[in-house]
Amino acid sequence: MIARGSLWLPLAMLLLLAALSFWIERSVELPDSDTPSTQTDPEGIMENFDALRTDLAGNPHYRLSARKLKHYSGSKRTELESPRFIQLGVQAGEVSAEAREATVSPDGHEVDLRGNVIVERAARPGQSAMLLRTERLLVFPERDQLRAPGAVDIRDATSNLRASAMEYDARQRVIKLTGRVQARYISGKS
Questions:
Q1: pLDDT of 79-129, one tens digit each?
Q2: Which end of the chain has fewer CB atoms at under 10 Å, N or C?
Q3: Taking the CA of residue 135 as centre, how many other CA atoms within 13 Å lie in the half-sphere pointing to its CB?
């Protein structure tokens, strides 16, 4: 009888150790890469981000900068805090856009500026400075296009314009205002 009792004690100890090992493994297990906590964590963060894009000849085409850049590898999404976009075209003149935040598409061909968006076009010979305000602006840098899907307010030395939406093609130099459009022409001083 003593021999049987001595067999159960090591077996019970082994079962207890196996259960304890299983519990410890489950307690310290790393989360899957598909869990929501890792999807919301950025893969990389840059502060005082500044990028310059040039054309094939090496001439500056546009500059994109931000106070903070966050890149998410799973969705390939990039978010910017306090972004500033500057188009550096010699023919079209300098155009800058800034906002509270922005998202850059995975291929980099679309920048979605949101929150108190301000676009300024510098004055040049024969053309006054222009100021555009909206809450959201889509920038397509490769196509030299801007699109505001919401209300816009545009002011320059000779006119004040308001519209429900806007599209601007810098290559063709065409601005298209849609929805309810109000225009006021300011005549020059005599």
A1: 999 999 887 765 666 788 899 999 988 888 888 999 999 988 888 888 888
A2: C
A3: 6
